[in-house]
Amino acid sequence: MSRIRKKLMERGKRLLNIQSPSLRKRSNLNPRTEKTKKIMHLMVTSLCDRDCKYCCNKQYDLNSIPYATDEELRETETLCITGGEPFAYTKPNAIAYHYKHKYPNIMRVIVYTNASELWSSLIINRAPLGNIDGLNISIKNLGDYQMLDDIIRNKEVCSLPLNRIYVFGDRLYEKTNSLLTEYDKLGRFQVIRREWQEDFKPADDSIFRRV
What we know:
Layout: H1 3-10, E1 16-17, E2 39-43, E3 47-48, H2 70-73, E4 78-82, H3 86-89, H4 92-102, E5 108-114, H5 115-124, E6 134-139, H6 142-153, H7 155-158, E7 163-168, H8 170-183, E8 189-194, E9 207-210
Parallel strand pairs: 2-4, 2-9, 4-5, 5-6, 6-7, 7-8
Antiparallel strand pairs: 1-3
Helix pairs in contact: 5-6, 6-8
């Protein structure tokens, strides 16, 4: 294990509860309509080991986010598991199993995570992925990028049909594209350039709920 990876694994994590009142702002949630009801972003934890300045969750009053209802879940086709950091503080594979078996209409479960935490879960803790259909992996700093090489070679990750890599910053985007060009000949990962939004605007095709 490299010195950088040891440092990442050994460092003390400062937990951030993103429901802290001092962090709250207001941001409009999408209404549930025919257009938005088939995709649900479901917050399964508010805990995170990071404190990203423009984290989208800091722009919501999280207490105003509705709880997911049985009726809503019965019309959901794609369930996006989000946090916080799901791999650090929940068991995403078990969550995916639960919702897929209770609601057969849910055809896809996608998990949002950062590359460093995903690497720790996969390599150190051997987290299973069998009930998950895709990972949305964020690359927000050099530490995340340095975990990516192992992640894109992981057989279980590569077997998932719906993987995306969200990269923040031009330099990291160029490095990530270069790495994927060399090692992802089958195109298993879609690389998307992202920017921090001081005024976050949610995607207009989905609803946001919490457990």
